[in-house]
Amino acid sequence: MKKLLVFMMAALMLVALAVTGCGGEEKKAAEAPEKVLRVATEPTFAPFEFQEEGSDKLSGFDMDLIRAIGAKMGYKVEIANMGFDALIPALNTGNIDVAIAGMSITDERKQAVGMSDPYYTSGLIVMVQKDNNDIKSIEDLKGKRIAAQIGTTGAAKAHSVEGAVVTEFNTNTESAMELTNGGVDAVINDSPVIGYYLAQGGSEVAKTVGDVMEAEQYGIAVKKDNTKLLEDINKALAELKKDGEYDKIYKTWFGEVKK
Ligand code: ARG
Question: Which of 51, 75, 87, 236 lies in disulfide reach of 99, CB 3.0 to 4.6 Å?
């Protein structure tokens, strides 16, 4: 009988220990390093992502958006800088968790990675030298020299132009420079990015021609099978849209709230 009592007391103590053990674990969680969301972008794409002059700080609409998404998910957000064509491989080798880079959701990319719900509607446009009066739309680019950024929808569009000689540059800065220098006849890139470039002084040397082409939706990319992260990102994005923070960020970079 006495033995049984001792046994029961020991069992009770074990239960008590297990209960307080939970508290101990909570403490451990608090001491554990912060969860880090490893993000990458290609920052020659203002106003979505760009490097502030004289600093390595990455700014722009996408940067604010992913920082807000990370904060909602309880992550510390670290943003690295890499070539646009390196983003999808980096996701799939696990070197990064997330790519946000004004990346248009295409069928091809949906095969390669997980793409979030759309967060911005864009479209391609043609830019030529300011005094060029021969090229009035993409129709006039047949057989011409076109620059675009490597691995982009703009580059794909350029390759679809009959007889065009396409040069794919690592950065959009180089494409724009090549146009200014007369090395190419046109650049194809996303309309809001070209619009920003022209507004920031590019209109001294360049202009757009023709209409914005078919709509493209930007999405945030994760590794193909990382459905949990994708769900969390979509949830955070929906919350930001609902609580007005998305609109606030939108207004910072585009001056008005999207209808
Ligand atoms: N929207 C285009 C695409 O998905 C261009 C994106 C380029 N982004 C960048 N950060 N350089 O191909």
Answer: 87
Spatial CB neighbours of 116, under 8 Å, sequence gap ≥ 6: 219, 220, 221, 222, 230, 233, 234, 237
Question: 226 CB under 6 A from ligand 1?
Answer: no
CB distance 61 to 47 below 8 Å: yes
Neighbour tally for 59: CB within 10 Å: 18
Q: Which ligand 1 atom is the nearest neighbour of the CA of 62? A: 10
Mean pLDDT of 117-122: 98
Confidence of residue 68 (pLDDT cuts 50, 70, 90): very high
Is 153 near ligand 1, meaning CB less than 6 Å away? yes
Ligand 1 centre to CA of 23 (Å) is 47
- DSSP annotation string for 85-101: GGHHHHHHHTS-SEE-S
Ligand 1 near 49 CB (within 6 A): yes
